[in-house]
Amino acid sequence: MAGINQSGKYTLEIGISVLPEYQGKGYATKLVKSITARAHLEFPEMIVTYDSQFTHNQSINVAIRSGFEQAWSEIFFSKNK
Length: 81
What we know:
It is a single chain. The chain contains 2 helices and 3 strands; from the N terminus they run ββαβα. It is an alpha+beta fold and 81 residues long. The chain has one domain. The protein has a 3-stranded mixed beta sheet with strand order 1-2-3, covered by helices on one side. Strand 2 (11-16), helix 1 (27-42) and strand 3 (47-50) form a beta-alpha-beta unit. The protein is globular, with a radius of gyration of 14 Å. Residues 1-81 form the N-acetyltransferase domain. GO terms for molecular function: acyltransferase activity, transferring groups other than amino-acyl groups. This is N-acetyltransferase domain-containing protein.
């Protein structure tokens, strides 16, 4: 499954989920490339983003294979109680 939503005034965010039995077969990359191309056609004024957790290597690799580049990273710390 793949979807896109408006995450900011000028940004669209892609979200995908691939069932385990279909992972590793290139479906995620095809989905992301397809939805990115469609978003650029329908909303040319918007920036398309793909967000992933820093430790989610599979997701990061999908983004890279789909043509995305890393723009920023966030690290959060919490105070021990």
